[in-house]
Amino acid sequence: MLPFFIALLITNFILFYCIYMIVLQESGSAQNIDFIPREFTANASYTVKITDETQNKEVYSQATTSISQNLYFNRYNAVFPVKQDIYYTLKILSGSSVVFLDKIYCTNQTDLPAYSINNGEYTSNATTNEFITI
Question: Which residue in 32, 50, 70, 118 has the most C-beta neighbors within 10 A?
Fold first, then answer.
């Protein structure tokens, strides 16, 4: 019985992680990244790095002091050079220590709760055949 509960815990953790990844759009406008860092010092210098996971290439690296601190989370606002349907890795560093690490997915779908990875890929056929299956 114990392995079942371990598998259940692992499955719930994986589902939780995938549902709450950062989602950005391919846009020339500024977008927000909301996060909860491991540690944070106001007005300190942080480096924000975004790496394309398909090419293992850094696409964004910016030193900043403009991370705003809200009541329960922090926010970073910038224009990100992300492309649609690509996964990225986000690292926020303080010096050489990582204070936040997460995944980013870029999509232009606007209705995110109803997000579908097959958006526009599948179409059903309409037919007049009336088969009876026994």
Answer: 50
